[in-house]
Amino acid sequence: REISKTKEITPEFIEIVKKHGEFSFNVLLLDVEGKNAKSLIQLVTVCHTKLSNTDHSNDLKQICTNIYIKLIEKHHTFMNQVCNIKDNVSENETDDKINYIIQTVYKINEFELGSKIITQNLKNIFKFFIRIFEYLQQHLFINETNITSEKILILQLSKCMTILENTLKTLVVLFTKNQKIIKKDANAVLCNIPYSADISVIDKETYQQLLKFMIMAAYSKISVNNCKYLSTMCSIILLDYISDSKCSSHYILKLLYPKRLIEDNKNTLESMEEIYTKLTSNALKYVETNENDSNSLNFSNISMIRALISNARIETLLTPIKSNNGNNDCSLFSYCLDETNYYCEKSVEASMKIVAFESMKKWIEKTMECYKMKQTTDDTQQKEEYNSICNNIDQYTSKDMCNKFMQFILNNWSDPVDTIQQKVEDILEVLLNLILLKSEYNGKPEFYKEMIYDIYDKLFKLDYYNKTRYGLLSIVVPFTGVNQCLSIQSDIIALSIQVLRMDTMARIVTNFIGVFYGLQIKEKSDEEKKKIFDTYYAKPLCDALTSSNSILRKNANIYLLTSLLKCNKDVFGQTIDKLKSDDYNNNENYLSAILATIKTASHVIGNKNKSTETEDDGKLFGGIDKELLLQCFNMNSLNIRIDAFGLICENAKEFEFPTKTEMELFREFLPLNMHCAIPEFRQKIESYANKFLSRLRNGILTSWKDIKKIEKKRKITEDLLTKKNKLMERINEAEQWLNELLEFCIQSIYPDASYQRGSIGLHLIEILINVFGITEINLPSGFDIRKSALTKEIFPFKLPIITERNVFALISAINIPYDTTRQSILNIFNKTEPNQPLPGIETVEKVEELLSYVISKLNCPRAQENDGAVLLGKILTKKYINQLNWDIKLISKDEISIDQNVKGEAVFIRFIRRIIAMIDEQIKIAKNNLLYASKRYPMFGLFNFLNDFLSTLNYNKYIKDHLEELREVHKEIYERIISANEIVLDIIQNSSPEGPMPDVQDIGVAIDEIVNEFDEGVDDASSKGKNFNVTLNCCWRVIKSTR
């Protein structure tokens, strides 16, 4: 980078650049794993570019060339040693090194300087590759006469196969990049033409050896498919280096298809005849074995066909050859077509099908090239040649042959292999272009019309629930235009939409409809677009949205409407207008369709507070009336209710102020829907409410920021003052609305409220705290105060969530007997200011009074009251003992009284010891009369209270100063746990008729009855069973509370 930035060229700078380039090239050659190849190549390229404008432009190239020549010589020496080893067992280290050498050639060839170096040393590289093939001949291309499938599999998985694949890949790149220079050299050698060039890249021996190994790799049973694919390409490239197309065609037949060469062709070359003779004893045996193979379908054959079509010149392919039936019109081109058709029709293996369809596509593209060359050339002689070629090709592109291609497409588009489907689509695209090109070339538009009609006819004859129909129509329609399609089947859109009643068809059908609609409205005015939608889409779309079939409704909304909206946003307004018309407004699914349409549109084209057609604040997204949404709130369908609520809450962007109508509808929704027993419904209410309240906060924050900006201006105009007043009025309305919402939530958590109402009320209070905070506002993510006009007054008001009245309302709601509601109450109190007492509970006496109430409830055997008391105790002790460090006494209003003067330096230690003292008293009662203790003083209440207090204690805060006290007090607690467990174990272990576990169904009723009977002094025989259950329940809860 530093080198590239320097502009001054000095001798010192040139030396530095040379050294950097040389060093980088050396490191690149040694980079075995290739981790730094990209960076090194960039560095060498920068150095080469920097020197290119100086007198030393070739210096770096010469330096790197010399380095590479030495490296090649070193590699040759290594390969000579390897190939001379008689042992046929390959070693991993040797294989790894050979792979590294091949990859080095591949890497160097990727950049300009490296490519030039490779070209200069191409002859030596080819010879080096021949040595690699000789090594592979020892270890890979073994005698295949009686080889087993197990042995083939072992060789295919060996590192030698990786070497072969990498070598072939590199050869293909070298042949492609150096095509011109290799072709001239090879043609001169093969045709014995005098030729002088600066660089000699190939000789007859090298050509023969490369051709030999390419044919062996192509037809060997051991080669994997990818190696066959690459080696066939190399074989055809080498054979087509012969400049005379007739000679090239002759030797392709003679070497690769000897059975098709039925005449003694005069198009021979002396050098090629010598090469042929030498290949007879080795490589051509593989070809002979392949031709005699009983299996008419194999990968080598179709790979060779593909290589012929892709890599041979059209002149070579169209050279006439005699066939067995005496047909003089036969050529390699027609033979390739016949073989391709055969493999497309008969192949079962996916790999063969893929190559066969690639061959078909290449064949059609080659045909198109011929037609295009005839049209583009101005040379008279060339025109005559191309005219002759095109006349030969015309017979291969007849109507019957095009129909045959189309049948292959229809038969294979739905193949489960994605690659095959893609190849088939590619064939259809080039086939359509071929039909058009041939029609233009011959001046016969009727050929095009007939073929296109036949293609549509075939597609329309397919079943409506056939995916192939829609997948191929999505390709054909853009090519022909929508009018031609509609002229054949005018109701195609309406019929296609009905197919959406099947889930598996939804994506493919809507993709086609989206393509179709996009083409229809392309470059059309708004009025024309509206007319197109009304004519073809409005009725079938609205029919689907209001259909009695739920799958059709869902797919029309999720897929079809989305697809249409992406093409044209105005579809939304037109759909809403159509749904509001008399044709649909009495439909039972009318409201559902309206809401679904709005919901989809809001996601696709973005949220807006109001319809683009109205400025009325009483209307929402799409011009929906307030009365319509109120009607939705009262519907039997919960989905319609929650969708309508979601529409209100998600009706605008994150920082857009909610309208009055939205806030009114929000409040209208809650009383009607808070008692729903479906948990998912309530969760959605809370989720939507969170979004709405966050948007309201963001809107207030934005408006307040704008007010502050106005106030900071030196001169405030009348317009600015009016704007400020409007913004302030908006904020005041929002504050009043929030206070009303908070009041509604507090009123919803009265002690006898239903679980559903209480749960939503508490969750809404939580959301208000999370969004608006208690003393400080929670800012939205990404909002930077420093960049705004806000300083001290970040927010215009504080929401009075934690007031005296609200605190006691929350405390009374603790008696709602559900864990989720109690957890919400705990969460609310946990978010209060840690250093401030709760409003209304601001004295030690008030806290002690409340804790006295807690103690009385802890002594109750009823689980509901006991658990509520534990939670209240946890809230009070965390606030006043852990956070405020108040010394609170435990005063009981019953017969148990304890000494409040306990030892302990820390307040929390003294409080723990007061609880322990109360536990001691209850243990004493339990030792004397366990039944009485179970009814009046169950020990589990205090143990639960103590356990919760310890769980909220911040040990890290106290452990440094009060370690010894903590150890002592925990020891005392363990002693009480042991004492309590010793008392109850006898009951739990007692083998009684009722069993060791309490009867859960009876306990809820039994506890209330027994407590009442105990109060009235009832003690008859009928209550003994119940007494045992209560005692047993108490014992089990003691065990649980002391775990």
Describe the structure.
The protein is mainly α and about 1050 residues long. Among the domains are: about 1-85, no CATH class; about 315-460, no CATH class; about 470-605; about 835-1040, no CATH class. About 70% of the residues lie in helices and about 0% in strands. The protein has 49 helices and 2 strands. Strands 1-2 form a two-stranded antiparallel sheet. Strand 1 (about 620) and strand 2 form a beta hairpin. The chain is elongated, with a radius of gyration of 44 Å. The protein starts with a helix and ends with a helix. Mean pLDDT is about 85; it is low at about 610-615 and about 995-1010.
- Order of adjacent strands in the largest pleated sheet: 1-2
Low-confidence stretches: 609-615, 993-1011
Work out the radius of gyration. Answer: 44 Å
**Outline, from the CA principal axes?**
elongated
| Major sheet characteristics | 2 strands, antiparallel
Outline of the structure:
The chain is mostly helical. The protein is built from 49 helices and two strands.
Helices and strands in order:
Elements: H1 2-5, H2 11-30, H3 37-51, H4 59-83, H5 92-108, H6 112-120, H7 122-139, H8 149-156, H9 159-177, H10 179-191, H11 204-219, H12 225-239, H13 245-256, H14 270-280, H15 283-291, H16 299-311, H17 314-317, H18 332-346, H19 350-376, H20 380-394, H21 399-412, H22 418-442, H23 445-461, H24 467-480, H25 482-488, H26 492-498, H27 506-520, H28 526-536, H29 538-545, H30 550-567, H31 571-580, H32 590-604, E1 619-620, E2 624-625, H33 626-633, H34 638-649, H35 660-673, H36 679-712, H37 718-747, H38 755-772, H39 804-812, H40 819-830, H41 844-858, H42 863-883, H43 907-928, H44 930-936, H45 939-952, H46 955-958, H47 963-989, H48 1000-1016, H49 1024-1041
Antiparallel strand pairs: 1-2
Helix pairs in contact: 2-3, 2-4, 4-6, 4-7, 5-9, 7-9, 7-11, 9-12, 11-12, 11-15, 12-16, 16-18, 16-19, 18-19, 19-20, 19-22, 21-22, 21-23, 22-23, 22-24, 23-24, 24-27, 26-29, 27-30, 29-31, 30-32, 31-32, 32-34, 33-35, 34-35, 34-36, 36-37, 36-38, 37-38, 38-40, 41-42, 42-45, 43-44, 43-45, 43-47, ...
